[in-house]
Amino acid sequence: MKHIIFTVTNDLNYDQRMIRICNSLVENGYSVKLVGVSKNTSEPLIPKNYTQKRIEVFFNKGVLFYAEYNLQLFFYLLFSKVDAFCAIDLDTIMPVYFASFFRRKKRIYDAHEYFSQQKEIVTRKTIYKIWHTIEKWFVPKFKNGYTVSSSIVKEFKKLYNVKYGLIRNMPALQVNNFKLNKSKTLLYQGAINEGRGFEGLIPAMKYINATLNIYGDGNFVEQTNALIIEHAVEDKVVMKGKLLPDELVKVTSDAYIGINLIEDIGLNQYYSLANKFFDYIQNAVPQVTMNFPEYKAINDNYNVALLLDDVNPHNIAITINNLLNNEILYAQLRTNCIAAAYVFNWKNEEENLLDFYTAFFE
Per-residue b/e over 175-212, b at no fewer than 16 CB within 10 Å? Predict the structure, then answer.
């Protein structure tokens, strides 16, 4: 049995991608450990069929957090039973590289996103320089890896001469969640971070006769709350906090329209293919999303969404109102979502994951 250690900085209870990956590998004969961080806001771990480990830190954010966690993680990995390490994103790539180097173990890079191209990084010169340097130095040293969109696969090949696999963020098939007769509520689920379109979405709600429920957490929560007050839409926009994955499925299936907005700042946003895009499809929820390469390619074939060229509040309001008020259009997109759900689900995508690890350990 092969032993794999995955390393993240996310909350282990809420990382849907890692929960799916770890479960699939365990069910197919691998021994898996997922290592994350324990912060002062962390809730008790939910038991899984794979091993979980949290490393306690004193600092909860910023440079000191990354320094402390990476150092502790390196020493933990140095003495752990393992056949291969898998670093999730740039924020754990250094301890995984050095632990694998000193122990002469295999290593993998799983890029959940194009990390150095996030808006909150590319718009800060010094921060960008640091993360871009880490990326340029370490990604080429990980010859084996995979990521979430074909655009990022191509970009990594062009920049770093690594041929990565494609394993997209797809949920399980949700045939029992194709609900009819819903109230006309809007749903945003996922990270509430910079670059996710809230500066356009919140003011747009002044012109939309519906309630927007926002589920999630992130680095833009305070700013989003301030925008809600500034634009006097407290009666229309509700910040619900984050939910566990199983609970999130239930609220998603109840939504009428899903929202997946992204600013065109940084290639991470432009090349994105978010969890929520597939979550909405799986729950037969038509959505409003971006006219970016990955979304457009799927929508051209399956027509499950209305696409926006930008996050201008006026354009957002017109597009959402169109989907709210045009029952024929809505019914067609919903029907298309149901058909697409049988294509874009984890059962199908899991085959790519298992093929990758079979070839990796040969």
Answer: eebbeeeeeeebbbbbbbbbbbbbbbbbbbbeebeebb
